[in-house]
Amino acid sequence: MLIEPGEKSANLHRAAGLVAKAAGAGAQVAVLPEAMPLGWTHSSARILADAIPGGESCQVLQEMARRHGIYLCSGLVEKEGGSLFNAAVLINPQGEIVLHHRKINELDIAQDLYGSGNCLGVARTPFGTFGLMICADAFARGQVISRALGRMGADVILSPCAWAVPAEHENATEPYGKLWLDNYQPVARDFRLWIAGVSNVGWLTDGPWKGRKCIGCSLVVNPAGESVLVGPYGPTAEAVLYLEVKAEPRPASGDGWEKFWNGP
User: Fold this and answer.
1) Is 146 helix (H, G, I), strand (E, B) or coil?
2) Burial class (CB in 10 A: 0-12, 13-18, 19+), 73
3) What dihedral do alpha carbons 116, 120, 123, 127 form, nearest 10°?
4) Other Cβ atoms closer than 10 A to 234
5) b/e per residue, 88-104, with b = 16+ CB within 10 A?
6) Would you say 179 and 13 are in contact if contact means Cβ atoms under 8 Å apart?
7) For residue 230, what are the β-bridge partners?
8) What is the mean pLDDT of each run of 10 residues along the chain (264 residues)?
9) Which has the least CB within 10 A, 15, 139, 163, 166?
10) How far is CA 71 from CA 32, 92, 144, 157, 172, in A?
11) Which DSSP state fits 196?
12) Separation of alpha carbons 115 and 226, rounded Å
């Protein structure tokens, strides 16, 4: 998805169109990028970030999920009290939030804007058990976040991302994606799970990486550790990608939450 930095209304409108297209083609789960309404580290977050649940961005996504009868995952920029978080949600077809994650392994350069999360969760659904992480969570030391989700029973880990490279980066001479393969593949193999990293496209116009380009290359790795889907590269390479994912179904039970807390 192309994200226009700081343009919440435009981004939510664009997301609605892409989700409708995916659902119309038969998708049962749709995933949108990191910090979707505003873009990663855009300073508009200090004014435009909103609550989870109850905020405009979250409510719009909940309505999308209800309207199309799908599971919908997206990155959000969350405000709680005086704090901001780089967050993500998984919403069920009834419009209910079944997972809410705050990025834990945020890059140092973004920590003056975003606080850190302290919780991991998985949600059991008719399609299998989903876990949620965000971008750099994947390369926390020892892959501890994704491995914890695997230990908690995740069949599929969804990861909204914002993969950015310097403006002069040339994919032909330096193919993008090794960092993510190096961190997705061993976890997928060890826990026999799927990992889907979904990145936006477009230019970063604010924040510590102003002038860099987000280049898509969304990636899915299967339980054998094989890369089975790779999106196109480039700051204008918006695309809706489809893949059949076969995770062992597990019946939903209780409220669908299991949690792992860092601390009391």
Assistant:
1) helix
2) buried
3) 90
4) 15
5) bbbbbbebebbbbbbbb
6) no
7) 219
8) 98 98 98 98 98 98 98 98 97 98 98 97 96 98 98 98 98 97 98 98 98 98 97 98 79 40 35
9) 166
10) 11, 5, 26, 14, 35
11) E
12) 33
- The pLDDT, as a whole number, for residue 250 is 43
Q: Could you tell me how far CA 189 lies from the centroid of its own chain?
A: 21
What residues does each domain of the chain span? 8-242
Predicted confidence at residue 248, as pLDDT, reads 55
Which amino acid, residue 18?
Answer: L
**Homologous superfamily of the 8-242 domain (CATH):** Carbon-nitrogen hydrolase (3.60.110.10)
The region, left, alpha or beta by phi > 0 then psi within -120 to 50, assigned to residue 256 is left
**pTM > 0.90:** yes
Residue-wise DSSP of 45-69: HHHH-B-TTTSHHHHHHHHHHHHHT
pLDDT digits (tens, 9 = 90+) for 195-249: 999 999 999 999 999 999 999 999 999 999 999 999 999 999 999 999 999 875 4
Alpha helix ranges (H) inside the chain: 8-24, 45-48, 56-68, 144-151, 178-191
